[in-house]
Structure prediction request, 833 residues.
Amino acid sequence: MMDQKLERLLAKVQKPGRYVGGELNSVVKDPKNVDVRFAFCFPDTYEVGMSHLGMKILYSLFNEHENIWCERVFAPWLDMEQQMRENGIPLYALESGDPVRDFDMIGFTLQYELSFTNVLNMLDLAGIPLKSKDRPGLTPVVTAGGPCACNPEPLADFIDLFFLGEGEEVDCEVIELYRECRKENCTKDEFLRRASQIRGVYVPSLYRVSYREDDHTIQSVEPLHGAPRTVQKRVMMDMDRSYYPDRFIVPYIEIVHDRAVEEIFRGCIRGCRFCQAGFLYRPLREKSVGTIDKQCRALCENTGYDEISLSSLSTSDYSKIEELLSRLLNWTEDEKVSVSLPSLRVDGFSNELMSKIKTVRRSGLTFAPEAGTQRLRDVINKNVTQEELLQTVNTAFGGGWDRVKLYFMLGLPTETMEDIEGIAELGQAVVDAYYANPHKKKGRSVHVTLSASAFVPKPFTPFQWEPQDTIEVMHEKQRHLLSCVRTHKIECNWHDADTSFLEGVFARGDRRLCAALEEAQKRGFKFEGWSDCFSLPKWMEVFRCCGIDPSFYANRKRSFEEVLPWDHLDYGIKKSFLIRECQKAYRACTTPNCREQCSACGAACYQGGICVENR
Amino acid sequence: MKTVRIWFKKQGAARYISHLDLSRCVSRAFHKAKIPLWYTQGFNPHAFLTFALPLSLGIRGERESMDIKLENDIPREKLIEDLNGALPDGIVVFDVTEPVMKPGQIAFASFEICLEPEDVAAGELAETIRALFSTPEIMVQKRSKSGTRTINLKPYLGRVQVREGNGKVGISAVLPAGSMENINPGLLLNAIETYLSCRFYSKIVRTNLFDAEMQEFR
Prediction:
């Protein structure tokens, strides 16, 4: 796919392997034999995007259809972008090398708010008008999906339609409709109106948003041209029948997660109140042991990977985790394949589990208590106690581990300085536990990392009304944490408060932020998640220039009555449930997990998964 | 356990993968093809796999080789077929032999360089390059792990020929390569660019490897 023009550029950039395609299992079709060409765009680097499971699933699924050719597009890194702009090379897809602007459909996956500027920059680099209204034709249609589509309002002016929920079915239905519409010579407006009738499709241009004069909050969101008043997300209820690829593209260059990934369930039973994923992906739906085993074998056979990662929001919550591991270890050991379990819970780490994952290469252990005191852990419904944590690290230390990483959040609702001190104390308790361990290896020291990120309130969580801590308060809390740590065996690190602020603005933003994104793109902003690029002062200038007060979005407490920008989108979770959860949080009152007891969140409307299983 | 030498080409998109990435990519192919490699017996077992001489990023390789240790014997044809079935398109295995020389004996490599000048005629460029290569001192910056130093290319140009045709300039070069001394063909291009300040599009192919007596590496 490489032409000479491109080859010249490649000689001048870092990691040219990002831009050439041709990897094992990448799909090349004859454009003459397909009806719809779909450019799957990941608004980040190749290494990040290629690690993403959702893209692997949808790429393979689309390409199973003979008449669709789905190709991959990533954001070129700064050096490559410069070369491309200087030499007049538009953004192209990796498989064919053809310009993205010539594709029929373009689909962005929205994994994090800080990639929004990359979405616009990629459109610009492709030579495609940014705004939906400046693209009157049916080609290309610009779509987007992924978790951030749950509040897509900051991108409403740019994206023609959003996919809400899981893409496996709805995406293909929309592509099929697109085919029909093109055959019938429909206008883009007509296609969008028809698409809006498909469950799981949100067409932002079909909703009129009005704002209140007094406090500038939303007055109302009115559907137009027969679009549904609320748009419901799509879900795949039978995980065993749901499409899963039997092969991944195997990159030439090393990517972030360079291994086979097997999704073992979707959703989460826990209901941690800060966690958006825990609500967005309800209800919990498991794959059977047999399906997982079969899919893992196929993946290893077709890729040559020697590591499988069992992926989910909380791996140890899989109801038959030990049976699953035994089944996998039956063949993985002989085939020299290792199994890794990310996302282990503090209370899910048993001796048995440990002995099973010990057969593979051992790295550090990571747990997420999230908060430093029991009170605050109850507020956020992270049902984990200090005793459980210490018991777990004792198990781990007994098994020979000596590096532990603990994740926390700063700025959680109701947090006090006492809670921050609790983080350091918990770290110290872990260090003490190591030295109290009678089987400790002589001369080995322990290393505990306390990693503190800044809490960002997200839509569809019980904290969606909460103010985010200001950057100043966040810095004060970070300093306080550091001052409480008294040993070099504990290392503290944290997430940059500035980027968390911007993340907070866009996470709960509305359509008025489109102007800021457009201005930011004009000024060449991109890769906000990378410290090489991000600058808060520059962003504040953009907000000033657009007459936007970012703290209105990040630091303001909303009332339960306020119309939120995402209220017309329905993820199956009732607002009344989120209000109830928020009020319980203020009382430091916990909610049982879905397996223990149903809390009537609303996800039972999908009539499947944990909601209908016997408890 | 048997050591075999696998011969392959590195071309197309595979030109753009580094040595480290190549090693990872090839290991996966062995795993995928279920070829029983001998694993090192250390603390962190890994497949025994060594490349004769790493190839710089962007250069096509026509006669690259790697040595592996097999747990048990596999017919040559089957090994070639299975590996090619598991490798990406840019890496093509064309032969499997028993190693004759040690990779450490490699002393020279031959290259074919093709230049397409952008603003001068090929004949003119070829002429000026020949003139440049016949001057007694051609100083270029050579980067290495220990820093950048300036070297004179002239002593290494004994086996370099320049010719023209089809609007292109071809340079055949045999340059020191291996563990003792290494001259990257890119240095020749750097010299042409700096001394003659001209722009061109270039393609480099490493065609073969030799020992100190200029015997083909086998």
Observations:
- The radius of gyration of chain A is 24 Å.
- The interface with chain B takes residues 2, 4, 7-8, 10-11, 16-17, 19-24, 250, 252-254, 258, 301-306, 336, 361 of chain A (CB under 8 Å).
- Chain A has a mean pLDDT of 93.
